[in-house]
């Protein structure tokens, strides 16, 4: 079996707190599905810093910071990083598998 490269998914929210539980659930889902993924959360204020440190494939925004979507897309610029808002229902239910799927579909 060919080993796939690690997918890096960054969740972004107001303070990085509400998404930390979701990160844990996404990691569990990835592990169950045997998907190699690096998933982490960061507060919106640290996006620039994280983009310079990490090889991010996609950024998922918590619904509470959906207003920052165009701002984050601007920060990403012409890098091949997909940006989207986490599905509100999946976020509310803390459905790690569904949010993981959303990220992987974005990455393609």
Explain the overall architecture.
By secondary structure, this protein is an alpha/beta fold. The protein has one domain: Rossmann fold (3-Layer(aba) Sandwich). Helices cover 44% and strands 20% of the residues. The chain is built from five helices and four strands, in the order βαβαβαβαα. It has helices at residues 18-32, 47-53, 69-76, 88-92, 96-107, and strands spanning 7-13, 37-43, 58-61, 82-85. The chain has a four-stranded parallel β-sheet, with helices on both faces. Helix 1 packs across helix 5 (96-107). The mean pLDDT is 91.
Averaged pLDDT, please? 91
Structural class: alpha/beta
> Which topology does CATH recognise?
Rossmann fold
In percent terms, what proportion of residues is strand?
15-25%
SSE succession: EHEHEHEHH
Largest sheet: 4 strands, parallel
Tally of strands: 4
Write down the overall geometry.
Answer: globular
- Give the tally of structural domains: 1
Q: Which spans have pLDDT < 50 for at least 5 consecutive residues?
A: none
Number of helical segments with 4 or more residues: 5
List the strand order in the largest sheet. 2-1-3-4
Assigned CATH superfamily:
Response regulator
Q: What fraction, in percent, of the residue positions are helical?
A: 40-55%
Which value, in Å, is the CA radius of gyration? 13 Å
Give the CATH architecture: 3-Layer(aba) Sandwich
Distance between the termini: 20 Å
CATH class assignment: Alpha Beta
């Amino acid at each position: 079996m060919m080993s796939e490269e690690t997918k890096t998914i960054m969740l972004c929210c107001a303070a990085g707190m509400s998404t930390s539980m979701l990160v844990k659930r996404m990691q569990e889902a990835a592990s169950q599905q045997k998907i190699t993924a690096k998933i982490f959360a960061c507060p919106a204020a640290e996006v620039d810093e994280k983009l310079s440190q990490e090889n991010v494939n996609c950024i998922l925004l918590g619904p509470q910071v959906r207003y920052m979507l165009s701002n984050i897309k601007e920060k990403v610029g012409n890098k091949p990083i997909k940006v989207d808002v986490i599905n509100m229902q999946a976020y509310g239910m803390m459905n790690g598998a569904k949010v993981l799927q959303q990220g992987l579909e974005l990455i393609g």
